[in-house]
Amino acid sequence: MTKSASKITAAIIQHPPVFLNLNASIDKAVEYIEEAAKKGAELIAFPETWLPGYPLWIDSAPNAAIWGSPEAKSVFNILVQNSLEIPSQEFTKLLNAAKQTGTYVIMGANEKEGGTIYNTLIYIDKDGEYKIHRKLVPTYTERLVWGRGDGSTLNSMDTEFGVVGGLICWEHWMPFARAVMHQKNEVIHLCQWPGVHDLHQLASRHYAFEGQCFVLAAGTYITKQNVLDGFDSLQIKKSDVRKLLESINGNNKTVLYNGGSAFIAPDTSYITEPMFGKSKIIFAELNLELINEGKLTLDSSGHYSRPDVFTLNVNDDVQSNIKYKSE
Asked: Is 48 a catalytic residue?
């Protein structure tokens, strides 16, 4: 840590996106970044695939996983059309928002490359430069939507106050992925979730202690009405898609993801208790000196490691099914 001040103000965006509407969600993201920055945030974090929303129909719409389902094909088509491309005009708006506010931003997005969508975490620094991390293993029904990332995107972001890293959802139960991030000596780690329920709280608090770092556990608050309103904002005639979204369990007031965002200290204590049931921005001041105190007893990539007994080999090459001899 090279920053003279020992404290940093961070923010988690728990508001819902404009579901399935990329352009409108980008505008909302810029609005929230500006609002958080005005209130003193230096680091601003968004939940998993916030752009333009986690594909929650895969878990709660009865026909979402039926082979050849016209409704499932239609909603996937809309998600593809509203997934973020890097680079693009939409992406430039995010870069400019970070640059103009002088903040570090970590965004979760459905990212499109070629014909595949990835679950992607995007690090944006205050100069408008960026790195990405693609989720290594989509979990269960997520495999209907996303492709797999590879070791080339196990990235982090350098800041004047230390290394900021992140993993996505169930990657926090991949011991080797955690080990890679711990080796980077993170001071702040973002745990991205759709919503941060009890099991996700447990994983986030465990990560804070094992990594001896501050954790931002970020989840979205979103209702079924938010989902339907977001789709309707696209103003496209796709009655089959609306029918699929309407089939999601519950009535329009049903809360599909209940937020639960929290700031967690290296000793696993909550700096801010999990925030459930509200659409809002959550702020916290992080005292970075606590990291050194925790490292006295545990440094999993330093004095509490045993490289003479355990080593991990990481393939960080970009994976491609076509390899040219000239490369």
From this structure: yes
Count of other CB atoms within 10 angstroms of residue 156 = 20
Is 169 a catalytic site residue? Answer: yes
Residues in the chain: 327
Q: What is the mean predicted confidence (pLDDT) over 269-284?
A: 98
- Marked catalytic residue, from 28, 90, 111, 169: 169
The string of pLDDT tens digits covering residues 280-301 is: 999 999 999 999 999 999 999 9
Domain 7-295 fold is: Nitrilase/N-carbamoyl-D-aminoacid amidohydrolase (3.60.110)
Say if CB 279 and CB 13 are below 8 A apart: no
234: number of Cβ within 10 Å: 20
| Domain ranges (residues) in the chain | 7-295
Pick the catalytic residue: 28, 112, 126, 135? Answer: 135
18-70 confidence digits (pLDDT tens):
999 999 999 999 999 999 999 999 999 999 999 999 999 999 898 888 998 99
Q: Is the pTM of this model over 0.85?
A: yes
Nearest to 317 by CA among 153, 110, 192: 153
Query: Which of 28, 42, 48, 186 is labelled catalytic?
Result: 48
Mean local confidence (pLDDT), 292-319:
94
CA atoms of 110 and 119, how far apart (whole Å): 5
Distance in angstroms (rounded) separating the CA atoms of residues 224 and 237 = 19
For the chain, list the strands marked E by DSSP: 7-13, 43-45, 104-113, 116-124, 130-134, 157-159, 162-168, 186-192, 214-218, 221-223, 255-264, 270-276, 281-287
Bridge partners (DSSP) of residue 159 are 162
Rounded percentage of the chain residues whose pLDDT exceeds 90: 91
